[in-house]
Amino acid sequence: MVKQLVAVFLAAILTENYVLSKFLGICPFLGVSKKVNTALGMSAAVTFVMVLATAVTYPIYENILVPFGLDYLQTIVFILVIAGLVQLVEIILKKYMPPLYNSLGIYLPLITTNCAVLGVTMLVLEKAAQDPSYTYVTAIVNALGAGIGFLVAMVIFAGVRGRLETADIPKSLKGLPITLVSASLVSVSFLGFAGLVEGLMG
Amino acid sequence: MNAILIAVAVVGAIGLVVAVVLSFASVFFAVPTDERVEKLTSALPGANCGACGYSGCSGYAEALAKGEAKPGQCPVGGEETAKNVAEILGVKAESGVPTTARVMCSGSCDNTEKRVNYKGIASCSAAFQLLAGGGKCTYGCIGLGDCVRECEYGAIKVCNGVAIVNEDLCRSCKKCAAVCPKSLISIVPKRSASVLCSNIDKGAQTKDDCKIGCIGCMKCQKACEFGAVKVEHFKASVDPELCTLCGKCAEACPKGVIALPADYSKNE
Known about the structure:
The complex is a heterodimer. Chain A is built from 10 helices and no strands. By secondary structure, chain A is mainly alpha-helical. Chain A has one domain. The relative contact order of chain A is 0.20. Chain B is built from 11 helices and 8 strands. Chain B has helices spanning about 1-30, 35-45, 55-65, 80-90, 125-130, 145-150, 175-180, 205-210, 220-225, 250, 260-265, and strands at about 100-105, 155-160, 160-165, 185-190, 195, 230, 235-240, 260. In chain B, α2 packs across α3 (about 55-65) and α2 (about 35-45) runs antiparallel to α4 (about 80-90).
C-alpha cells in the first residue's frame, strides 16, 4: 500500500510530470516562470488547488455522476465544481489567513480553470478505472505529486530563464521563441526519468 | 428525453449547491473593508509612480484611510488631488509647495566642449560607465536623454546637449532624478532660484571645463540678504526655503549660472 503510494507520488513528479510530459498547464509555465519567487507562489497555489479539487471531484464522480450514468458530463461538472471551490477557498483564506491570501494573491483566481488542475482530476479517474487497487487516497497522493511536479518544473524553468536573461540570443529568437525552445529542452531532459520509478519500485 | 432531463437536473443541482455555498460563504466570511479606500483610490491619479513613498496609488489610499499618511503627499496629482483626498477623509488639506524637477547643469554645446567623441550606445548610463559621459566637465549633463525616456509626462527634452525640464508639465515624480547617472536632477520648489551647475572642482578647473560653470566666487553668497545662498566645495547652492526670489544672486553672478523661475518661462 505504502509502496504503491510512494511509486504513484514519484511517478507524478518525475515520469508523468504534468507540464513536461503531458504538456498541461503550459500557460502558467510560460507566463509566471520569469522569477523563482512568483514561480514558487504559483506552484504552491496550484498544488493546493489540485489536491483539494481531486478530493472533491473524485467522490462526486463516483457517487453522483456514475450512478446516474452521467460520466460524459465529467468535464463540465468538474470545471463548475473547481471554479466554485477555488472561490470558496479564496473567501475563507481572505478571512482567516490574510498573509497566505496576500502571498497567493492573483494566482489563486488565475488557476480556477487551469488545464493542469482539470487534467489531474480527470486523469486520476482514468487510472482508477484501469487499476482496482487505485483508491481515493491514491488519487489524492497522485494529485499532490502532480502539484509538486508542477513546482519542480516551474522552479527548474525559472532557473533556465534566469540564465537566458544574460545569454546572447539571436535577434529572431528573442522572447517567446527561445523560451519555447528551452522549454522543449527541459522537457526532453525529463525523458531521462522514464522507467526510473518502475525500476526503483519494481 | 429522460437522459437530458437527468443531466440538466444533476448539473443544475450541483451548480445550485455551489452557488448557495458561495453566497453563504461571502456573507459569513465577509471581510469588512474600508469603503473610503475605493473612493480614495479613484481620487488619486492612478500613475502608480510610487513618489508618495507607498507601493502605488492603492497602497497610498490604504495608508490614507488608516491615517498613516497625509493628503498632499502625491506630487503627481498636486493640490487638486490633495483637496479631493482631504474632502473624502474629512480633514483640512495642507497646501503643499508646488515642486518641480530641475537639471542642475547649464553645460550646453555653446558653453562646454566634448573631451572625446562618444559613439556608443545612446544612453547616459552606458556613456557614464565608459567615459563618465565624454564631456569636458565630468559633472555635467551627458545629454543622451535617459531622463527624457523615463519621463511619463513628456516634460523633459534635450536642448543643445543639455536636458531641460518644462516645469509646467513636470509632476515631480522623481523618476528622472533616479535615472540620471550623475544625479544632476533635483526636486525643488517651483518658486526658488537655482544654481544650474554641479561642478565641485576648484574655480580654475571649472573655468577650463565650462564657460558658464560655477567657480565658487562667493559673490552670490554676499549678495543674498536672506542667507539662502551658500558656497560649498567651490559651488554655490540655494536653500529653497529661504529664497525669496529677489534675484540679487543672479545679478551678482559673473557667470550667469543662477536661474530664476522667470528665466525658465522665457526658455519655453
